[in-house]
Amino acid sequence: MAPAPSSTSSAITLNINGEKHHLPIDHRTTLLDALRERLDLTGTKKGCDQGQCGACTVLVDQRRVVSCLSLAVAAEGREITTIEGVAEGDELHPVQQAFLDLDGYQCGYCTPGQICSAIAVIEEHAAGWPSAVTDDPAPEAGPPPLTPEEIRERMSGNLCRCGAYVSIVQAVARAAGEHTAEGSAAGKHGAEEAAA
Amino acid sequence: MTTTTPGPSALRGAVGTARTRIEGREKVTGAARYAGEIPFADLAHGWLVLSTVTRGRILDVETDPVLAMPGVLTVLHHGNAPRLHTDYVGMLGTPPDPTCAVFQNDRVPFAGWPVALVVAETPEEAREAAEALVVTYDSEPHDTALHPDHPGAYAAAGHMPAETEKGDLEEQLAASAFVVDAEYTTPEEQHSMMEPHAATARWEGGRLEVVDSNQGAGWVQGELATMFSLDASSVRVRSEHIGGGFGSKGLRAHQVSAVMAATALNRPVRVVLTRRQTFSLGGYRSPTIQRVRLGAAPDGRLLALEHRSLNQTSTVYEFVEPSAGVARVLYDADAHRTANHVVRLDVPSPTWMRAPGEAPGSFAIEAALDELAERGGIDPIELRLRNEPDVGPVSGLPFSSNNLAACFREGARRFGWADRDPRPGIRREGRWLLGTGTAAASFGAGAAPSTALVTAEADGSFTVRITAADIGTGARTALTLIAADALETAPEQVRVRIGDSDFGPAMIAGGSMGTRSWAWAVTAAAAELRERLAMTTSIPPEGITVRSDTTEALGALAQKERHSFGAQFAEAAVDTATGEIRVRRMLGVFAAGRIVNPLTARNQLVGGMTWGISMALHEEAVRDRNTGGHYAPDLAGYHVATHADTPAIEVDWVDDHDPDDPVGIKGVGEIGIVGAAAAVANAVWHATGVRHRNLPIRPDRVLAATVPEPAGGAADA
Amino acid sequence: MREFGYQRAHDVSGAVSLLAADPDARYLGGGTNLVDLMKTGVERPALLVDVRELPLDRIETTADGGLRIGATVTNSDLAVHSEVRRHYPALTQALLAGASGQLRNMATVGGNLLQRTRCGYFTDLSQPCNKRAPGTGCPAVAGEHHNHAVLGASDHCVAVHPSDMGVALTAFDAVVSYESADGPGEVPITDFYLPVGDTPHRETALPPGALITHVTLPAATVAAGSRYRKVRERASYAFAIGSVAAALAIEDGRVREARLALGAVASRPWRARAAEAVLTGAPADGATFAAAADAELAAARPLPHNGYKVTLMRNLVVSVLTELAGEDAR
Q1: Chain A CB contacts of C14 below 8 Å
Q2: What is the pTM of this model?
């Protein structure tokens, strides 16, 4: 792809959920708007359009990013996964299933972003990435346990105004296969045990 | 101690069992389409242009250069927009906010007022053209500062009497053994629902169709029909999935301007507010300045209670944030005076926001009660229990049920309140001082007339149609459970359709009244349908449909004080060296009537308490003190609680049965926030010994209140 | 947002020549700041030159044991790099304290250094701003300046630099390398940001059109025990109201070497040399730490509504240094 410098649009190919989409694109179009307005992939949400809420989170080359600050033209050649692409056919991704079972949402508008973010959080943690609340970030310390505090910090780029954080954290913990005091109580009785 | 009370219709017991959301799969897969996501052929995109002056007059809208830009279809403004009918009172008993009746004259009453709509083929073109549109103004001096002695303040009623008074306040204060007299303030707060307002309007077969994100499709339909002088039957509003509302999603500038543009262009037009635009166009909770005076006898019994609240409103619309109303329910006193005042400023119009009145009002009164408890050496819970009224303190009416005491007893037990050392500033853990606090909560349990259609289908299933809205409450699921019980069938046999004004008039999702109002209508229709079915041997292909209307039944309901109650508990950690505060845990125990779906109800109550943390510590929309416009109106400038700010929050409820209520549902949408900020603020006092009477309790406020330690002594590691 | 051209650069010289040819061109890295500013209208480039595929995405150990970090390394990759975590933990902590996981995956090292202030007047085109529109004035001085500068500001601009990463780099004497039309160059990070004076729109020492290519961290044994603490108005996903990157080497109860940089107090990450001078050679105790903080903050010129930052920074410096001293003693 090599448009003339004066051109303000390009014909691009986006690789989304394993499918190639060819489309002419105004360079101003963000990846978020390309998904929502051009490709009818409206599962990715626009909450602020400024990178301040996380509702538009998608995975690009397996990493979570905000699609509102990504230009579609710059996403060419990358592997994009949206909420529409995380399930295996009819079988929900474990993170999706946990959100459904544990009521990890209310209005649902931040949910696709939370889920995409959570999928990446679990991967990042498995890869040994520390977080801002990890006591000792040195590599020798090994990966920290994925405690509720760790999940909260790692998920903080995804706002939920309904205030469903408590059940979201439980859902992420369940999906991550962690059995913390809080996480294992999930689905039955809120955060009762952890509040003690 | 989770209990549910089977109501008269709960024969099969779907109500009271935890059910995942009916639309849950759609929401976790991204398949659920919200208002801005439904495709239309030939769709055009509108972008609002807002005023950059705070008060004045539009001199000129230079449309020509913009109309010449690529893709631009039209520019609507006061010079070419159709005239609207605005002299009416809408479904909720209020006239329309002129902010929504866009482009009717050249006046600019506040910064961020809609002055034009640019419509173009693509969102990118619309945005660029809207940015390029030059609007010139004649600017006038403005007044945007709310202060306690503002000469323009006046008593205002809103949805309740402006002022109530009994007894001689000064006399009782003088006779009191201990007294609190303090001013509390809360800032401008923004709803900040995750989905900004969005609507697509189009004409289809002679009907105006609006796909919108709102809290009441019938409500918005009625307003649009009246405003555009259309027959109500020729307007249809649909609102299937709603990305949060909290009071902000009624009639707004986006629907009205979309209808104007769709009419002018004769093609579908979508208008979506940007996050920044929601700050001035979406309504907000007014800042409040509240003065509370309390006086008590040596045993803690209140002799005097005064709660006065002042809020701001715009010059074009009166909205009362009735903060002083809380004490009309929660506390009696020999002398009892409450007053809600407003002042008109050159600011955007405020509106309902989650627990309007109760949220800021409970902060002031419940913080003042905590101060009174401290002065009197009485346990804060004991002080509240000693002042529980037998009847409505102002109305004199009996309570339908008042289980506040049970909430406190159960909450105190679970939170470990008995082990609390009442002395402030003595628990320390590393750099953190720890404290706990409590507060009471109450919120009205009302219902409004609604209609519902229930159909027995030929295949044995049932369809419920009602103009309800599910803004995240789980209404679709709750109504399914309620209908299943009322029809004596399994929830799987019931299909609930909502969010379409064609289903007939119904209450909005607001005032914690939605589920109660809709359940009433669904139950009534189901009961009648069962009677009809009992007399029928076969169901015709089109099914048998029964329509209910609860207007009469509601009118016959006895006049009582009907409220939910709750007890809030919080533990806070405060680093007085940096001003940081972390809420470590919260517990809320509520008496909120019948709980339809424990899974979603708990989530919603926790959500309200999360708002309480956010209100106590983070939220504050800032105005530039010179221009009067918003400073940094976005989600980086306006902080709401994140995951990391929200600890484990526990919620439960006590048995709360109301024998004369046919549905027994009280609503859980709002009571979760009531008292929550006060519980946090009271915990901060207990941690530090410093009272914070101005929200949010920002780090700078903690630092300002902390006496500097001597050089070299600040270390606490 | 006006229409613009887009070019993906494949080599540094090509990218630099594209910028040299067009004063309205901008480099596009992660886009987390630039694309936002384009949406608000602060930036209106005619051409974006996408530099993310340039071969500048590596972190290498230098001959002296320091690190040479490519400009397109993402904030995430830098934060989790084992050498950074081991030898410059404050840099890892600073990066992880910034923004969100999503934004850190996008943001690059070069872009982070060049991010613009989050002052609400700068991003509001209806307001004057000397940084955005030179000569129009600074409404923050008499307006909202709750989170504005207390050090090194002028009447022309009181905005603060928002970077966390930059504070740690400043404490560690990082050197910024760039390529310009006139060839390569480098500048110490402490000279990278220009004094505010009456030219707040001139922010860095980079020649026009220059591309940051690397950031080099000299070897510093003192950095291995370093720490970053950030205070903000909520627990995560917010810009700092004050932050500290610090390192102490203590011998026989005395400070042998000290590194201290402050964030969210000035138009640039603030190297606290006055404090370091007090610390060096002095007893590693609370009195010294307080005296060091006071020495640095003596130059503070708070505005009516941000005086709390002086108290905050004093307490934060003392707290972090005390923690470091406590660990060193163990």
Answers
A1: none
A2: 0.96
Q: Select the residue of C146, C309, C318 nearest B715 (Cβ to Cβ).
A: C318
**CATH pick for A94-195 out of 1.10.150.120, 3.40.50.880, 3.40.1350.10, 1.20.1440.130:** 1.10.150.120
A94-195 matches A9-85 in CATH topology: no
Taking CB atoms and an 8 Å limit, are B644 and C311 in contact across chains?
no
B706 has pLDDT over 80: no
DSSP β-bridge partners for residue B163: B339
Mutation target to probe the A interface, by most A beta carbons within 10 A, among C93, C102, C103 is: C102
Tell me whether residues B641 and A165 touch, CB distance under 8 A. yes
Question: Which amino acid belongs to residue B496?
Answer: V
Q: How far apart are the first and last CA of chain B?
A: 41
For residue B524, the domain's CATH number is 3.30.365.10
Domain ranges of chain A: 9-85, 94-195
B646 and B623 co-located in one domain: yes
Write out the two tokens for B686.
């207990």
The continuous run of DSSP H or E covering A174 comes out as helix A165-175
Q: How many residues in total does chain C contain?
A: 330
Residues of chain C above pLDDT 70, percent = 99
Nearest to B578 among C118, C231, C239 (CB): C231
CB within 8 Å: C1 and B124: yes
Nearest to C32 among A51, A128, A137 (CB): A51
A78 touches chain C (CB under 8 A): no
In a domain, C80, yes or no: no
Domain extent, residue C37, equals: 5-50
Among the partner-chain residues B124, B246, B471, the one whose CB lies closest to the CB of A29 is: B124
Q: Which residues constitute the domain of residue B489?
A: 24-32+448-554
Co-location of B455 and B424 in the same domain: no
Assess if residue B466 is contained within a domain: yes
Three state DSSP letters for B33-64 = CEHHHCCCCCCEEEEEEECCCCCEEEEEEEHH
Residues 121-180 of A with CB under 8 A from C: 121, 124, 127-132, 134, 137-140, 152-154, 156-159
Judge whether residue B2 has pLDDT over 80. no
> What is the number of CB-based contacts under 8 A between chain A and chain B?
198
Question: Which one of A12, A25, A66, A159 makes the best mutation probe of the C interface by having the most chain C beta carbons within 10 Å?
Answer: A66
**CATH number for C317:** 3.30.390.50
Residue C191 is assigned to a structural domain of this protein = no
Q: Does C122 touch chain B (CB under 8 A)?
A: no
- Give a yes or no: residue B386 inside a domain: no
pLDDT in tens, C167-191: 999 999 999 999 999 999 999 999 9
Same domain (yes/no): B506, B416: no
Q: How far apart are CA C181 and CA C20, in angstroms?
A: 7
Q: Of B698, B685, B649, whose CA–CA distance to B435 is shortest?
A: B685
Amino acid A188: pLDDT: 35
Which residue out of C315, C320, C324 would a mutagenesis test of the B interface target, given it has the greatest number of B Cβ atoms within 10 Å? C315
Q: Give the pLDDT of residue B285.
A: 98
Give B312's contacts (C-beta < 8 A, 6+ positions apart). B146, B286, B287, B342, B343, B344, B345, B347, B350
CATH of domain A9-85: 3.10.20.30
The verdict on residue C144 lying in a domain is no
CB contact under 8 A, B32 and A151: no
Give the integer Cα–Cα distance in Å for C69 and C110: 10
Q: Quote the number of domains for chain B.
A: 2
Distance of alpha carbon B286 from alpha carbon B275, whole angstroms: 19
CA distance C87 to chain A (A): 9
Active-site annotation of B, residues = 670
Asked if the interface predicted TM-score (ipTM) of this complex is over 0.95, the answer is yes
Say if CB A63 and CB C40 are below 8 A apart.
Answer: no
Mean pLDDT of the residues in chain B: 95
Q: Do C47 and A50 touch (CB under 8 A)?
A: no
